[in-house]
Structures are given as structure tokens and as C-alpha cells.
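Key result, reporting period 2: structure in, sequence out.
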């Protein structure tokens, strides 16, 4: 009995020490796991946010040399630009674009604003890619050409009409938008987005029926918000080009008639 008592006295501290050791080990393993998981997550986020490419100095110079436009003067060379303007060009070329054409060249005179705007425009323009708009490319291009038509933005229409065709919009739908009439035949998703955008552009409001129809084809409210963002971003593009009187390429006539 005495020996059992001594054994219990010895075993109890040992068990407590063992349990404390195991708890410490568990905490250590858990902390390591959380640390490794955080490191991996940080690497994933960092990689997702990192520029897709780093433009060379020759690419930067060429992008500026290729600038063209209308009434708002562009920089004459990369070296003559301010530090903010150079940072803007680097930011654009580090993303999915290969140049700073169109409205980006107009906005370069206000480079901090331009960089904020170009990221929003890119989010809309490159829909369908990871990290960009949830709206499909076809429906994105539908909203873009509707915004271009609303502002009679000739160059924006010139660029995005073929993009809309490549994305899957029919020529009949595109021609109807060009002519300012509702397309006679549309798929359900195209009709829902057309009616939503048309009502918003023409009446400055959206009915419950058109909102719910848009929700149903865009996957919910995120799709609706991305669609409105696209329509807004490309009206900014259109307005910049209208103010600048951005020219079409030589020998190209506009399809759009003034309203």
C-alpha cells in the first residue's frame, strides 16, 4: 500500500509534466502550421497583386512615342515626362495592356488620377480573367458599346465593335445599338443586360424588374455592381475622347451618327 502511494506520488507529477509537454508541443505545432499557412497565403496574395510583367525602358519609350490624340497635348518623350507620368506609364504596361492608347493618353496630363482610372478601366475591360470583373466578356462588351453609343464616342466604338463581335455579340445586336434602336432578337442574358443599361442610360433609374433580370443572368449583386462599374468606367473613357476630339485612324470613317 505504501509502495502504491509512493508510485502515485511519483506518477502524478510525471503525468502532469507529460501533459504540459504535450500541450506545449501541440501549441508549437499549431503555431508553426498557422505561420506556414500565413506565409503561403501571403505569397499567393503577393503573387496575385504583383505586376504581370516589368516593361523595359525601350517599351516605355515606345509607348510614349506612339501616343496620338486630339486637343489635349501629349508628352513628346518618356524622358521629358514628370516622375508621376513615368510611374503611370510603368503601371499601365505592367498590367495586361501593351500600350497607353485611347483615353489613357488623354489622362496622362493628370497622372495620379489617370493611374486610379486605368486600374478601374482594366478591371472592366479584362473581364473573365482572374482578378477582374465577374461579368462575362460578351456582356462586358455590350455595356461598353452602349456607353460609347450614348456619348457618340467614335474611337471607343471603333475599338470595341470588333471586340464585341469577338466576344460573341451578333452583328444584328451591334448594328441596332449603333442605330439607336432595341435589337429585335436577343438571348436572355443579352436582353437582360441591354434593358438594364438602356434604362439606366436613358432614364437615370432602374426598375425592380430590370434589376432582378440582371441579377439572374449576372450571378447576383456582385455582377450587377461590376456591370454598373463597367458602364461608368467606359462613359469616363467616352467623355475623355469626346473632350479631346480623339481622332480615328487615317482613312477610317465613323459608324456613329450624331444624335
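The corresponding designed sequence is given below.
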Amino acid at each position: 500500500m505504501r509502495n502504491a502511494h509512493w508510485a502515485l506520488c511519483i506518477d502524478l507529477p510525471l503525468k502532469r509534466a507529460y501533459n504540459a509537454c504535450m500541450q506545449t508541443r501541440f501549441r508549437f505545432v499549431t503555431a508553426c502550421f498557422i505561420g506556414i499557412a500565413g506565409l503561403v497565403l501571403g505569397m499567393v496574395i503577393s503573387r496575385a497583386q504583383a505586376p504581370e510583367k516589368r516593361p523595359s525602358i525601350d517599351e516605355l519609350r515606345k509607348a510614349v512615342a506612339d501616343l496620338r490624340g486630339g486637343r489635349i497635348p501629349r508628352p513628346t518623350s518618356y524622358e521629358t515626362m514628370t516622375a508621376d507620368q513615368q510611374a503611370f506609364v510603368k503601371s499601365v504596361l505592367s498590367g495586361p495592356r501593351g500600350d497607353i492608347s485611347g483615353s489613357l493618353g488623354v489622362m496622362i496630363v493628370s497622372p495620379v488620377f489617370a493611374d486610379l482610372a486605368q486600374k478601374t478601366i482594366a478591371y472592366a475591360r479584362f473581364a473573365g480573367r482572374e482578378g477582374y470583373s465577374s461579368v462575362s466578356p460578351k456582356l462586358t462588351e455590350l455595356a461598353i458599346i452602349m456607353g460609347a453609343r450614348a456619348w457618340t464616342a467614335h474611337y471607343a466604338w471603333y475599338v470595341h465593335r470588333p471586340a464585341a463581335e469577338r466576344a460573341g455579340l451578333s452583328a444584328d445586336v451591334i448594328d441596332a445599338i449603333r442605330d439607336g434602336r432595341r435589337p429585335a432578337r436577343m438571348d436572355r442574358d443579352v436582353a437582360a443586360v441591354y434593358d438594364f443599361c438602356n434604362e439606366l442610360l436613358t432614364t437615370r433609374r432602374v426598375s425592380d424588374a430590370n434589376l432582378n433580370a440582371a441579377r439572374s443572368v449576372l450571378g447576383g449583386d456582385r455582377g450587377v455592381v461590376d456591370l454598373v462599374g463597367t458602364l461608368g468606367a467606359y462613359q469616363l473613357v467616352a467623355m475623355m475622347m469626346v473632350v479631346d476630339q480623339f481622332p480615328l485612324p487615317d482613312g477610317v470613317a465613323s459608324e456613329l451618327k450624331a444624335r
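The chain has three domains: 1-50, 57-125, 137-244. Residues 1-50 form one domain. This case is discussed further under Risks and Mitigation.
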